[in-house]
């Protein structure tokens, strides 16, 4: 996880209204909150505690006296003078002191690009320091991982590899994917073509020196946060950042949220995609009006066909009435599940790296005969649940095993070391991730299970988490499981609540704040361990513990893809399979705005990285390859028909108890929503009457 940012000043940015999310025209408020660079450094520095660096680029129009007299001249990038500031403390005027008088050249209209990069390094053999600069003068700040699409050597860092690949890309201005230009004739690829290949979460800002073009964007599902400030009358700068500094979330120093529908926020979530901003000089006839370079923003299409299918969320088949292969097989499988009274044993750990064909015989040996219908059909083909399990295993393997950058440790520290943790409720999704992670990493490592509660041992998520640890101990007895019980009292979190307002921003409802606080506390990993429950070190006492894991597995995306929300059941009841599909498609396509940016900012504030196995591109594709009735069966009761396919995966992992768990959102399972309702609305009843979850926060928190 990294924190990245860019401040672009001295440019007349055009085209941003096409991508602005807020309603209405840009803000004309001259008293808009000021962005302070020091605050921005502090905010992104929390995300990347290993290093923090800056890099400045100055761009000027380079014009001779004779050229300046041509009123019809349109200047090109050849007329731009680019200078790099080696030391952030240098004075601007000193850099151009000589250039201004040499060769009868007049330099005008200074544009500044200020890159900031804070690094939490988790991959590669040696440390890196952002911003990264190559021999051509290109600059990259990158927050993400490359799990496929571009080859990354075991000893290399993802950002270093990407910078090297981008260096050879086409730099012809105006060129687009599919068009022939000088560069493509020489074998060069277009930047959107390279970026579209990346499998994994990412957000990036890239300066291509030869074309004078700034590239930026985030992955198709918004798994990494990137906020944008579009230029306004109050602040004409164009700004990108992983997170909002606290002082720019509102006008008042007491961190009031001043972002109603009639008052445009400083920050917006950047919509997913690849963007470019090409610097150019204005036409000579416009020079008297536009005393700045012009930056034209464009959004580029994804070029990878598979990615486009995932973005459009196109499913193989929707309605069983038009599927020639649909029969009573669905009911037969469910009947077999109900008849299976004994929990199957877990798939043997040594099979974690094997393909489905290689470990099918082992699965047959461990699962009751009636339940074999979830593994393979009469022809020997793998059932959907087995295919999803295999895809999830590969997803977790990619996120936890290969090329993890670690500092050297003493042998006596390894036994107690937990490099990877899970945000853990004991529910279906987190139990599946825990069981799969056990099969993916060396048995010498302890796995931390991070659980937050606002009602001590009585919160539903705490009860299910403790039960879940016992079930995991049964299916994986050789693994050390450490449940970290993080207890909190909402009334004691005044400072944290104000801090979280800046992290969730531009989200601004009580529901967003409640979820953000719960995630932030869980990611911090500071709690208690029940030695008697966890059976660690022969210590049966309850002791204080803070997790040092820097990689956190999170179950985000499971509900959206597998019909886990109550509204999915409502849509299915009212409109059948097609209506259900459309609602699920909407959930997936807006997950970047409603969930992922907020969650990424809250978790990474501790200098930790969230990874989302259910949102792996291959997992999404696998789920889309099945008819919708294989994913969910919403005629069945809650806890059975919703997320049907994941319940079957849970059975395959030996987690019978977890397979029956109902859906429970973190704000309810931890009981922070109940405490928030009482504090802010007086009671749960009053909060329900006010639809508290969607109410925006407009007052100071105390």
Structure report:
By secondary structure, the chain is α+β, with helices and mostly antiparallel strands. 34% of the residues lie in helices and 18% in strands. The chain is built from 26 helices and 21 strands. The strands form three sheets. It has a seven-stranded antiparallel beta sheet. A seven-stranded mixed beta sheet has the order 2-14-13-9-8-7-6. Strand 15 (420-423), helix 12 and strand 16 (447-453) form a beta-alpha-beta unit. Helix 10 (384-400) crosses helix 22. The longest helix has 24 residues, at 566-589. The protein is globular.
User: How confident is the prediction overall: mean pLDDT?
Assistant: 81
Beta-strand portion reads 15-25%
User: Low-confidence parts lasting 5 or more residues at pLDDT below 50?
Assistant: 64-76, 86-106, 251-263, 324-372
In oligomeric terms, what are we looking at? single chain
Structural class: alpha+beta
How many helices in DSSP terms? 26
Spatial strand arrangement across the major sheet: 4-3-5-1-11-10-12
